[in-house]
Design brief:
single chain; 352 residues; alpha/beta; Aspartate Aminotransferase, domain 2; Aspartate Aminotransferase, domain 1; 3 domains; four-stranded antiparallel beta sheet; 12 helices; 11 strands
Length: 352
Protein backbone atom coordinates (compact mmCIF):
# COMPACT_ATOMS: atom_id res chain seq x y z
CA UNK A 1 0.00 0.00 0.00
CA UNK A 2 2.87 2.39 0.77
CA UNK A 3 4.23 1.82 -2.74
CA UNK A 4 0.86 2.76 -4.24
CA UNK A 5 0.70 5.95 -2.17
CA UNK A 6 4.31 6.81 -2.99
CA UNK A 7 3.47 6.86 -6.71
CA UNK A 8 0.79 9.48 -6.10
CA UNK A 9 2.93 11.96 -4.19
CA UNK A 10 4.63 15.05 -5.59
CA UNK A 11 8.45 14.67 -5.62
CA UNK A 12 8.93 17.46 -3.07
CA UNK A 13 6.50 15.77 -0.67
CA UNK A 14 8.38 12.47 -0.90
CA UNK A 15 11.50 14.14 0.52
CA UNK A 16 9.72 16.38 3.03
CA UNK A 17 10.93 16.21 6.63
CA UNK A 18 8.25 16.71 9.23
CA UNK A 19 8.15 19.43 11.87
CA UNK A 20 8.80 17.53 15.08
CA UNK A 21 6.83 18.45 18.20
CA UNK A 22 8.22 16.16 20.88
CA UNK A 23 6.59 17.81 23.91
CA UNK A 24 3.16 16.19 23.31
CA UNK A 25 3.92 13.31 25.65
CA UNK A 26 4.47 15.74 28.55
CA UNK A 27 1.43 18.00 28.18
CA UNK A 28 -0.50 16.32 31.01
CA UNK A 29 2.45 16.12 33.39
CA UNK A 30 1.92 18.84 36.01
CA UNK A 31 5.55 18.60 37.21
CA UNK A 32 7.12 19.46 33.86
CA UNK A 33 8.47 22.99 33.40
CA UNK A 34 7.71 24.17 29.87
CA UNK A 35 10.42 26.59 28.76
CA UNK A 36 10.77 25.31 25.20
CA UNK A 37 8.19 27.06 22.98
CA UNK A 38 8.35 30.74 23.79
CA UNK A 39 4.95 30.82 25.49
CA UNK A 40 3.81 33.31 28.12
CA UNK A 41 3.97 31.20 31.26
CA UNK A 42 2.07 33.79 33.29
CA UNK A 43 -1.01 32.78 31.30
CA UNK A 44 -3.36 35.12 29.48
CA UNK A 45 -5.89 37.78 30.47
CA UNK A 46 -8.42 34.95 30.24
CA UNK A 47 -6.60 32.91 32.86
CA UNK A 48 -4.29 29.93 32.93
CA UNK A 49 -4.43 26.93 30.61
CA UNK A 50 -4.71 28.35 27.11
CA UNK A 51 -1.18 29.73 27.05
CA UNK A 52 0.10 26.35 25.84
CA UNK A 53 0.23 25.30 22.22
CA UNK A 54 -2.26 22.50 21.55
CA UNK A 55 -1.35 18.87 21.11
CA UNK A 56 0.20 18.48 17.68
CA UNK A 57 -0.33 14.73 17.58
CA UNK A 58 -4.00 15.23 18.59
CA UNK A 59 -3.67 11.71 20.00
CA UNK A 60 -6.58 11.78 22.48
CA UNK A 61 -9.13 13.00 19.96
CA UNK A 62 -7.84 10.65 17.26
CA UNK A 63 -8.09 7.70 19.63
CA UNK A 64 -11.65 8.65 20.59
CA UNK A 65 -12.63 9.06 16.93
CA UNK A 66 -10.97 5.75 16.05
CA UNK A 67 -13.08 3.97 18.65
CA UNK A 68 -16.22 5.80 17.51
CA UNK A 69 -15.63 4.89 13.83
CA UNK A 70 -13.99 1.50 14.47
CA UNK A 71 -10.84 2.45 12.60
CA UNK A 72 -7.21 2.89 13.59
CA UNK A 73 -6.02 6.24 14.99
CA UNK A 74 -3.24 6.12 12.38
CA UNK A 75 -5.92 6.44 9.68
CA UNK A 76 -7.12 9.86 10.88
CA UNK A 77 -6.14 13.42 9.97
CA UNK A 78 -7.72 16.43 11.65
CA UNK A 79 -8.07 19.78 9.98
CA UNK A 80 -9.17 23.34 10.64
CA UNK A 81 -12.42 22.49 8.87
CA UNK A 82 -12.62 20.15 5.89
CA UNK A 83 -11.47 23.09 3.73
CA UNK A 84 -7.96 22.81 5.12
CA UNK A 85 -7.89 19.07 4.44
CA UNK A 86 -8.97 19.64 0.81
CA UNK A 87 -6.07 22.07 0.40
CA UNK A 88 -3.58 19.68 2.06
CA UNK A 89 -4.68 16.83 -0.22
CA UNK A 90 -4.05 18.96 -3.30
CA UNK A 91 -0.64 20.04 -2.09
CA UNK A 92 0.36 16.42 -1.46
CA UNK A 93 -0.44 14.95 -4.87
CA UNK A 94 -1.19 17.75 -7.35
CA UNK A 95 1.75 19.15 -9.30
CA UNK A 96 0.95 22.80 -10.20
CA UNK A 97 0.48 23.58 -13.92
CA UNK A 98 0.58 19.84 -14.70
CA UNK A 99 -2.08 17.81 -12.90
CA UNK A 100 -5.86 17.75 -12.93
CA UNK A 101 -8.65 17.73 -10.36
CA UNK A 102 -11.94 16.16 -11.46
CA UNK A 103 -15.21 17.49 -10.02
CA UNK A 104 -18.88 16.88 -10.76
CA UNK A 105 -20.78 20.16 -10.64
CA UNK A 106 -22.99 21.50 -9.22
CA UNK A 107 -21.12 20.59 -6.05
CA UNK A 108 -19.19 22.06 -3.12
CA UNK A 109 -17.44 25.15 -4.51
CA UNK A 110 -14.23 24.77 -2.49
CA UNK A 111 -13.06 21.86 -4.65
CA UNK A 112 -12.68 24.20 -7.62
CA UNK A 113 -11.51 27.09 -5.42
CA UNK A 114 -8.56 25.20 -3.93
CA UNK A 115 -7.68 23.63 -7.28
CA UNK A 116 -7.34 27.11 -8.76
CA UNK A 117 -5.34 28.34 -5.75
CA UNK A 118 -2.95 25.41 -6.25
CA UNK A 119 -2.73 25.94 -10.03
CA UNK A 120 -4.35 22.61 -10.85
CA UNK A 121 -6.53 22.21 -13.92
CA UNK A 122 -10.20 21.58 -13.12
CA UNK A 123 -12.03 18.99 -15.21
CA UNK A 124 -15.80 19.10 -14.72
CA UNK A 125 -17.97 16.06 -15.46
CA UNK A 126 -21.37 17.60 -14.67
CA UNK A 127 -24.16 15.87 -12.84
CA UNK A 128 -26.92 14.85 -15.21
CA UNK A 129 -29.93 17.17 -15.08
CA UNK A 130 -32.72 17.13 -14.00
CA UNK A 131 -32.11 14.30 -11.53
CA UNK A 132 -28.58 15.48 -10.58
CA UNK A 133 -27.10 11.99 -10.89
CA UNK A 134 -23.43 11.18 -11.44
CA UNK A 135 -22.44 10.00 -14.93
CA UNK A 136 -19.99 7.28 -13.91
CA UNK A 137 -19.25 6.30 -17.49
CA UNK A 138 -18.33 9.89 -18.36
CA UNK A 139 -16.20 10.19 -15.22
CA UNK A 140 -14.23 7.08 -16.18
CA UNK A 141 -13.75 8.38 -19.73
CA UNK A 142 -12.40 11.69 -18.35
CA UNK A 143 -9.79 9.97 -16.16
CA UNK A 144 -6.23 10.12 -17.51
CA UNK A 145 -2.67 9.93 -16.09
CA UNK A 146 -2.90 13.61 -15.04
CA UNK A 147 -6.01 12.98 -12.90
CA UNK A 148 -4.57 13.20 -9.40
CA UNK A 149 -7.76 13.91 -7.44
CA UNK A 150 -11.43 13.09 -7.99
CA UNK A 151 -13.84 14.80 -5.60
CA UNK A 152 -17.24 13.22 -4.97
CA UNK A 153 -19.50 15.07 -2.53
CA UNK A 154 -21.97 12.46 -1.24
CA UNK A 155 -24.55 13.45 -0.09
CA UNK A 156 -23.93 16.21 -2.58
CA UNK A 157 -24.02 19.91 -1.80
CA UNK A 158 -26.36 21.46 -2.94
CA UNK A 159 -28.42 18.69 -4.52
CA UNK A 160 -28.60 16.22 -1.60
CA UNK A 161 -28.16 13.07 -3.67
CA UNK A 162 -25.79 10.20 -2.82
CA UNK A 163 -23.50 8.11 -5.01
CA UNK A 164 -23.91 4.34 -4.42
CA UNK A 165 -20.83 2.69 -2.93
CA UNK A 166 -20.53 0.30 -5.86
CA UNK A 167 -20.07 3.30 -8.13
CA UNK A 168 -17.53 4.85 -5.75
CA UNK A 169 -15.64 1.55 -5.99
CA UNK A 170 -15.87 1.63 -9.78
CA UNK A 171 -14.46 5.17 -9.99
CA UNK A 172 -11.68 4.53 -7.46
CA UNK A 173 -10.61 1.34 -9.22
CA UNK A 174 -10.34 3.23 -12.52
CA UNK A 175 -8.46 6.20 -11.05
CA UNK A 176 -4.65 6.53 -10.95
CA UNK A 177 -5.03 9.23 -8.29
CA UNK A 178 -6.91 9.81 -5.06
CA UNK A 179 -10.68 9.60 -4.89
CA UNK A 180 -11.98 11.90 -2.15
CA UNK A 181 -15.54 11.33 -0.93
CA UNK A 182 -16.74 14.37 1.01
CA UNK A 183 -19.34 13.11 3.49
CA UNK A 184 -20.09 16.31 5.36
CA UNK A 185 -23.81 15.40 5.35
CA UNK A 186 -23.55 11.61 5.72
CA UNK A 187 -25.08 11.58 9.22
CA UNK A 188 -28.40 12.78 7.80
CA UNK A 189 -28.47 9.92 5.31
CA UNK A 190 -29.55 6.32 5.74
CA UNK A 191 -27.00 5.26 3.13
CA UNK A 192 -23.80 3.43 4.11
CA UNK A 193 -20.66 5.56 4.50
CA UNK A 194 -17.72 5.13 2.13
CA UNK A 195 -15.67 4.33 5.23
CA UNK A 196 -16.78 0.75 4.51
CA UNK A 197 -14.50 0.76 1.44
CA UNK A 198 -11.27 1.93 3.08
CA UNK A 199 -9.79 -1.55 3.46
CA UNK A 200 -10.35 -2.29 -0.23
CA UNK A 201 -9.25 1.03 -1.74
CA UNK A 202 -5.79 2.40 -0.87
CA UNK A 203 -6.47 5.55 -2.93
CA UNK A 204 -9.69 6.45 -1.08
CA UNK A 205 -10.00 9.40 1.32
CA UNK A 206 -13.26 10.07 3.19
CA UNK A 207 -13.90 13.55 4.57
CA UNK A 208 -16.33 14.13 7.44
CA UNK A 209 -16.94 17.09 9.71
CA UNK A 210 -18.16 18.26 13.10
CA UNK A 211 -19.88 21.25 11.46
CA UNK A 212 -23.17 19.62 10.46
CA UNK A 213 -24.80 16.85 12.52
CA UNK A 214 -22.59 17.57 15.53
CA UNK A 215 -23.65 21.23 15.41
CA UNK A 216 -20.10 22.50 15.94
CA UNK A 217 -19.52 24.65 12.86
CA UNK A 218 -17.97 27.37 15.04
CA UNK A 219 -15.16 25.04 16.13
CA UNK A 220 -13.94 24.42 12.55
CA UNK A 221 -13.07 20.72 12.81
CA UNK A 222 -12.82 18.48 9.76
CA UNK A 223 -11.70 14.86 9.72
CA UNK A 224 -10.13 12.78 6.95
CA UNK A 225 -10.10 8.98 7.07
CA UNK A 226 -7.81 7.02 4.77
CA UNK A 227 -5.10 4.36 4.76
CA UNK A 228 -2.40 4.62 7.40
CA UNK A 229 0.16 5.20 4.65
CA UNK A 230 -1.73 8.15 3.18
CA UNK A 231 -2.60 9.52 6.61
CA UNK A 232 1.07 9.63 7.60
CA UNK A 233 1.80 11.86 4.60
CA UNK A 234 -1.15 14.16 5.21
CA UNK A 235 -0.17 14.52 8.88
CA UNK A 236 3.33 15.42 7.70
CA UNK A 237 2.05 18.22 5.46
CA UNK A 238 -0.66 19.74 7.68
CA UNK A 239 0.45 22.55 10.04
CA UNK A 240 1.60 21.10 13.38
CA UNK A 241 -0.82 23.16 15.51
CA UNK A 242 -3.72 23.40 13.05
CA UNK A 243 -6.46 22.36 15.51
CA UNK A 244 -6.75 24.46 18.66
CA UNK A 245 -6.70 23.01 22.16
CA UNK A 246 -10.23 24.32 22.73
CA UNK A 247 -11.51 22.61 19.58
CA UNK A 248 -9.91 19.30 20.57
CA UNK A 249 -11.40 19.51 24.07
CA UNK A 250 -14.89 20.37 22.84
CA UNK A 251 -14.89 17.64 20.20
CA UNK A 252 -13.88 15.06 22.82
CA UNK A 253 -16.77 16.19 25.01
CA UNK A 254 -19.19 16.08 22.09
CA UNK A 255 -18.40 12.43 21.37
CA UNK A 256 -19.86 11.57 24.77
CA UNK A 257 -23.24 12.94 23.62
CA UNK A 258 -23.69 10.80 20.49
CA UNK A 259 -27.22 9.81 21.58
CA UNK A 260 -28.33 13.45 21.70
CA UNK A 261 -26.86 13.97 18.25
CA UNK A 262 -28.88 11.01 16.98
CA UNK A 263 -32.04 12.62 18.35
CA UNK A 264 -31.27 15.80 16.41
CA UNK A 265 -30.69 13.75 13.27
CA UNK A 266 -34.00 11.88 13.56
CA UNK A 267 -35.96 15.11 14.00
CA UNK A 268 -34.20 16.71 11.03
CA UNK A 269 -34.94 13.66 8.86
CA UNK A 270 -38.62 13.80 9.82
CA UNK A 271 -38.77 17.53 9.14
CA UNK A 272 -37.01 17.03 5.81
CA UNK A 273 -39.74 14.62 4.69
CA UNK A 274 -42.52 16.92 5.91
CA UNK A 275 -40.98 20.04 4.36
CA UNK A 276 -40.46 18.33 1.00
CA UNK A 277 -44.12 17.33 0.84
CA UNK A 278 -45.21 20.85 1.76
CA UNK A 279 -42.88 22.50 -0.74
CA UNK A 280 -44.11 20.33 -3.60
CA UNK A 281 -47.65 21.55 -2.92
CA UNK A 282 -46.76 25.20 -3.61
CA UNK A 283 -47.87 26.49 -7.03
CA UNK A 284 -44.54 28.20 -7.79
CA UNK A 285 -42.42 25.13 -6.93
CA UNK A 286 -41.71 22.87 -9.90
CA UNK A 287 -39.22 20.28 -8.58
CA UNK A 288 -37.79 19.11 -5.25
CA UNK A 289 -35.33 16.21 -5.63
CA UNK A 290 -35.05 13.74 -2.76
CA UNK A 291 -32.26 14.59 -0.33
CA UNK A 292 -29.96 12.67 2.01
CA UNK A 293 -28.65 15.93 3.50
CA UNK A 294 -30.11 18.39 6.01
CA UNK A 295 -31.33 20.62 3.20
CA UNK A 296 -33.60 20.56 0.17
CA UNK A 297 -32.86 21.87 -3.31
CA UNK A 298 -36.01 23.50 -4.67
CA UNK A 299 -36.75 24.67 -8.22
CA UNK A 300 -39.06 27.70 -8.28
CA UNK A 301 -40.37 30.08 -10.90
CA UNK A 302 -38.21 33.01 -9.75
CA UNK A 303 -35.44 32.27 -7.26
CA UNK A 304 -34.30 35.88 -6.87
CA UNK A 305 -37.83 37.12 -6.13
CA UNK A 306 -38.38 34.39 -3.55
CA UNK A 307 -35.04 35.01 -1.81
CA UNK A 308 -35.67 38.77 -1.69
CA UNK A 309 -39.17 38.27 -0.31
CA UNK A 310 -37.97 35.91 2.42
CA UNK A 311 -35.14 38.29 3.25
CA UNK A 312 -37.74 41.01 3.83
CA UNK A 313 -39.21 38.60 6.39
CA UNK A 314 -35.73 38.13 7.88
CA UNK A 315 -35.44 34.58 6.58
CA UNK A 316 -32.28 33.66 4.69
CA UNK A 317 -32.17 30.84 2.15
CA UNK A 318 -29.52 30.20 -0.50
CA UNK A 319 -30.01 31.11 -4.16
CA UNK A 320 -28.06 28.50 -6.17
CA UNK A 321 -28.94 29.89 -9.62
CA UNK A 322 -25.30 30.61 -10.47
CA UNK A 323 -24.36 26.93 -10.30
CA UNK A 324 -24.50 24.58 -13.26
CA UNK A 325 -28.01 23.23 -14.05
CA UNK A 326 -29.38 25.24 -11.10
CA UNK A 327 -31.15 28.19 -12.69
CA UNK A 328 -33.99 29.23 -10.35
CA UNK A 329 -33.03 26.69 -7.71
CA UNK A 330 -32.80 27.58 -4.03
CA UNK A 331 -31.36 25.51 -1.21
CA UNK A 332 -33.25 25.49 2.06
CA UNK A 333 -31.63 24.15 5.23
CA UNK A 334 -33.94 22.13 7.48
CA UNK A 335 -34.30 24.19 10.65
CA UNK A 336 -36.02 23.49 13.94
CA UNK A 337 -39.72 22.66 13.93
CA UNK A 338 -40.51 26.25 14.95
CA UNK A 339 -38.22 27.72 12.28
CA UNK A 340 -39.73 25.50 9.61
CA UNK A 341 -43.23 26.61 10.59
CA UNK A 342 -42.19 30.27 10.31
CA UNK A 343 -40.69 29.57 6.88
CA UNK A 344 -43.82 27.71 5.77
CA UNK A 345 -46.07 30.63 6.72
CA UNK A 346 -43.86 32.99 4.71
CA UNK A 347 -43.77 30.66 1.72
CA UNK A 348 -47.56 30.52 1.70
CA UNK A 349 -47.77 34.31 1.74
CA UNK A 350 -45.44 34.62 -1.26
CA UNK A 351 -47.10 34.79 -4.68
CA UNK A 352 -45.26 34.43 -7.99
Amino acid sequence: MEAIINKLLRPNIKTLKGYTVWRDQYLDDTEVLFLDNGENNYGSPLGKGMERYPSSSQAKLKQALAEFKQLGPDQIILGNGSDELIDVLMRCVGEPFMDQVLVCEPTFGMFRQYAQINNLEVVNVPLVSPGFNWDVSAIKKAINPRTKLIFICSPNNPTGGSLPLQEVMEIATASPGLVVVDEAYIDFSEKVSALALLKQLPNLVVLQTFSKAWGLAGLRLGVAYTSAAMASVLNLVRPPFNVSAYTQQQALQALAFADKRMWYIRVIQEERTRMREQLMSLPYVTYVPESDANSLLVKVNDAEALCNYLLSKKILISNRSSQQHCSNYVRITIGTVEENERLWRALNEFSN
